[in-house]
């Protein structure tokens, strides 16, 4: 008789252990917490001078920097594509009114997060700093400023992603300021008279010869320094 009862007493114990084991195996994994917003100090360091480039016109400067933090689909411009009216006005006249309105529209659609716009022109050599906030949904940064004087040339920080592959914000980054031709004016020199392009061409990289050395594209006209401060 005892031999028959012992298995019956042990069965509930085994059943309970099995149930606990199944419960552990079926427990869903908790998702990693989403990264919070980040605040960056953005410094544009203009290095364009007679010592760095053969072409350095009198009164050389850059216009007020303007741009936004955005998603991958919130680009302000794209090489190989036509310039928007806002990019055209910025590149030809240093007027940010139209581009600011375009950024506001991107914010309204959710494609852009924060606007950054400086005040006043930037002497070259010289520098200017400002701050902008990004979040996990808008981890990219694009900024532009007119090269002046020029027909329709500008330098930019183009679609820079500051959220690393590890899901954390980049602490610091330095990027050369690339020069572009907006494709809206056909002038070939910094001080050429207005030559509107009809139809307009697309945005392309702008090669600038250096003052010395063999580099076909010359050194950059400046650089961007991005530093997370919060």
From TrEMBL:
Pro residues bias spans: 209-219
Region Disordered: start-end pairs: 209-230
Origin species: Hymenobacter terrestris
Entry-linked Pfam families: Spond_N
Domain of life: Bacteria
Keywords, alphabetical: Signal
The protein, known as: Spondin domain-containing protein
Keyword Acyltransferase in record: no
Annotated signal sequence range: 1-18
